[in-house]
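anyone seen this seq b4? input:
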Amino acid sequence: MFPSFQPRERRLLLVALLLLVAAYGLFLFWRGCFDPDEGRYAEIPREMVARGDWLEMRMMGFRYYEKPILSYWLTAPALAVFGPHDWASRIPLLLPLLGTLLLMRGLVRRHWPRPVADPALLTMLSVAGIFTGLALLMTDAFLVFWFALVCVALFEAYAAGASPARRRNGLLLAAVAGALGFMTKGAVAVVLPGAALFCWLLWERRLRQLWTWWLLPAALLFVGILAPWLWWLEQHNPGFFKYFVIDEHFSRFTGTRASQGHPEPWWLFLALTPVMLLPWTLFGIRALVRGWGRHDSLTRFLVCWSALVIVFFSISSGKLMSYILPAFPALGLLIGRWGLGEPQDDSVRDRRLWRLGLAGPVIVALMLAVLWIGSWFQLVPARVPQIALASALLFVPIAAAFWFARRALRTFAGVWLVVSSLLLGLALICSPLAGLNFNVFLHLNNSGLYKQIAAQLQPEDQLLMFFDYRPALVYYTQRDAIAFQMKNELAYGMAAEPDRRGSLETFEQLRTLASQCRGKLYGFVDPPDVARRLGPIREALVPTAFPKTPDTVVFEVIFPKAAPGP
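predicted toks r here
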């Protein structure tokens, strides 16, 4: 293993690989579902399995058309076999994770020398955007793989000197992967790789080679896969075509959709990209300096690939961090190839660039330490709840890695050992080891609370969500919840089936529900909303013994009985 490295470096890399595998394993399988994203993409396939109907897309009983069906189909079998556990919902993520790894491994080893290909691949695997993005249950994780497969197939089809058979096979493979990517998240799986191909050929002054007769069979194959699927899906999900293809593509991009979410400034992704490249971000400066003017064909293609993704979504009116995940396989390879794999030349400038790159892992280690100290000593109690003492164990592998790599920090192996330990620390701080209420991702993980509630619920009890929808609550309790004055992404489904029970708009309707509930009616609300929005029924909110989290407090809703008349 790692034949292009020296024996001592190989030992360090082997230990680092074991740490990284442990980090991925913990982050995938030893933490609860984040709301709303992971809760949503776990709950929809759970409902498919529970209903025995894998053809309709519903969330909390309402039609939900914001994403196509393929990622739900990939998730549902694991839930059917293992049950609705958080770890079971993430088993399908091994497909995009391992698939992307193998795909990029084959690409770099075919087109780059082994001594620079291996660092490039290992760097990509340990970029924060890849580590978190491919281990979170979202459609974006699956899209990353299909997107990468389209890009790699197109690159191989149009690589200089590619044979007619290679071009044919690459285009046909890109058509199949593009159709599957469309079935996962939409047209970006085809449009952006195609734009990257155009820009790359233009850069290499080979644009005339773009046309080939095999484009026609590839296009027919793409349409032949997609058209029957769209027709079939529309039959079982009325209105899907207009909502997803028109509203979710064109109207969302232009900002003309009736309900436009996530409005952010154009520069958002320029600011987020360095954060998502941690701990390797500062090695990007060395990659720019060492790679400038020496780029090969694959480097040029990876630049086009990553730049098109970031520019396209920067133009879009709606923005979320996960939108640019498809750029990070390319960015990770570029930093690894030119920032770490490129041999050091012992010049003063290069030594300074390497030391600057080393500052990235040190900064991440300090960030984890500051976060832990601030949480343990409750320096900002309103924002960061207290962490469990056992979580201090996360610093053991980090400290050990810095110690063993202290004399090897001028080598890729030594730095990668430190980075792998940092990712393991991140996985531990997001795990139950950190305690019920602690969560580094904006307090959106209430899985421990929801599991406690699920264990105590009686068949006649009911759940009520005030203002914010909580699909993870429904997932863990495996029962529908009533939505009070809540629309969000459920608005379309509620409007499509107005007679379907499941939502309330007035306090009088809430009073009626409470009077008809044969068991306990548990209400879930963000703490600031108790005084701000629930003042008129404050006397009906009875505290419970369930723990309070930074964004959730649980009440039993009991309206006082009206006094009898004279």
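The longest strand covers residues 462-466. The two ends are 88 Å apart (CA to CA). kinda curious what u guys think
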